[in-house]
What does this fold into?
Amino acid sequence: MNGRFWFLIGVLLSYACVRLLGQGDATIQDILENGTQSIQVGNLRYRADFAADEGWNSVYDQSHFFRVEQGSYLIEHDRREHPVRSIYRTESYADTIIVAKATQLSEDNNNGFGVICRADYQFNFTGYYFFISGDGFAQIFTYRQYIRTGLTDRIAVPIFNVGQNTNEIMAVCSNRYLALYVNGNLVAEAEDDTYSAGHVGLASTTYSIGTTINIAFNNFHVFSSYGGEGNFVPVLVNEIHHYEDDWQEIIGELEMMGAIPSGGELIFSDRSISGLSNAGSVFEPLHYRSSTIDLVFGGFLYITSMPETGVRCGFTSRYVVNNNYYAQSYFEISADLQEDMIVGYSVDETNEIITYETLPHDLQIGVPIHILYVLRGDRATIYIDGQLWISDMLIADFPGVHVFVLRGIETGGRCEGRDMFAYSIIDANAGLCEVITDSTVSQYRRASTAIEPINSLELNERVRVIAQTIGLDGSLWWQLENKNWVREDVVRVQGDCSNIAEVD
It folds into this structure.
């Protein structure tokens, strides 16, 4: 029988034999409970319905057939031993859960096929492969220096639909943790740190001489994931190539290189501001509800005029004020045109400088410099015009807002910040939803303001969320790990809050 016939048969089998995980994130989360490590499913990052081939290869020659057809992606070839793959090139990811259906259309069962995470689309032998076979086996493997390395044994899968049939594959890539599920059942687990981020894809191979393998993939989903043993270890990137582009390109490059985990949240973008110096300092808040600890900040800085006594201006994050509105704690990068240097320093909660670093720089009036910094915990990594300036800089570990700062001894100095953005980095290791306070917030024993509050959360507190409900006032309420409730509109949330349990 021809391939077209088996394609139609495969589509029918896909509806008859396989439970669709895409029914909801809760279904995936339930299945993940079978693993040995605690993994949280995050937001849907990408879904391919294969109505068009945008972002995927489309190749047809005598030995290879990659093509979108009738809502599926077909890979047909006769290459033996080494997988033939198709990579979704549009976006890269770090920590993911990939779900896809795979229907075998060819007759020979001595094969392997499945999904890939963290691949480099420019190099074939990269990434993690989650393979099943027509004769009922499964394996997780990778490539190290172009050599295939099995991370698990080749495992017999009793719940496998063998032969010309449909199976659902779910692959977990979360920190060092890797897991393969077939038809909702855990079949293999491994740990490896060869690759931290990359592209997703599909692949297949045949192990028989002179045979062709033909696989139809559909219902391809990519979710973000959180958790897994082994802390996220950021890769130190020496150069940012897209630093002059918009924030999506910068964040995408940092994620692809493994400098930050995927799944963060934009705080603001495309902000511009200017200031005129006087005797003292001018602090202009960029965002009143952006109190975060782990973040990426970027923007262009111009000094457009300078008095004889000089002027210094720059960007500040984690800016905290005391009750008298004096700066109490912050991290700052500034340009000093008079001294021809860039200054970076951090002030702790006692208003004492804990770190002070300088970099000679040929600054000029009206010529922009691009500043980008990544703050994680008590460390900072700083880039100037796309080049790594300093890494592992000790900074104060406090949440705070973002500020444009201008300092001078006299009037006449002016500087500008343009195309500024701030991006919150989630805690990739915790897999938690947290509320963050930007002011004093009342807590209640129940989800209602009709009763008296029992106590308050103070400014810049972060508390884990364990449940949610809709109150009698129609508002969404979060239940905190201390069992108290806060209303959704008076706090911010950080992390993945899409799977928080709903209670009455």
User: Anything to note?
Assistant: The first helix runs from residue 3 to 17. The radius of gyration is 26 Å. Residues 253 and 391 are 18 Å apart (CA to CA).
